[in-house]
Amino acid sequence: MSRIDQMKSLIEELEPDMRKFYEKGNKAAGTRARKQLQDIKKTAQEIRLEIQDMKNSGQV
Q1: For the segment 36-60, what is each residue's pLDDT rounded down to a tens digit?
Q2: Cα distance between residue 17 and residue 60, in whole Å
Q3: Distance (Å, whole) CA 56 – CA 11
Q4: The pTM is what?
Q5: Dist CA 5 CA 2 (whole Å)
Q6: Whole-number CA gyration radius for the chain
Q7: How far, in Å, CA of 56 to CA of 52, rounded?
């Protein structure tokens, strides 16, 4: 799976819980959304480091 597809997938998984939390006030959905956002943050950091390494090594 490409990094783009990976990020899209994480965001698509997040959307239902965000809707449940903001539109219906579901507290459990808010907890799940926070966990998913943390996963997105972690993946984004990994991608940032990967991009930096590729840039510095001249692979791009």
Answers
A1: 999 999 999 999 999 999 999 988 7
A2: 37
A3: 29
A4: 0.86
A5: 5
A6: 15
A7: 6
Q: 56: which 2 tokens?
A: 């510095």
Nearest to 14 by CA among 2, 32, 41, 28: 32
Q: Any residues with CB less than 8 A from the CB of 54 and at least 6 apart, and which?
A: 60
Q: Which amino acid is residue 44, in one-letter code?
A: A
Q: Taking residues 12-24, what's their average pLDDT? A: 98
The amino acid occupying position 21 is F
Helices (H), 1-60: 3-24, 27-57
CA distance 15 to 26: 13
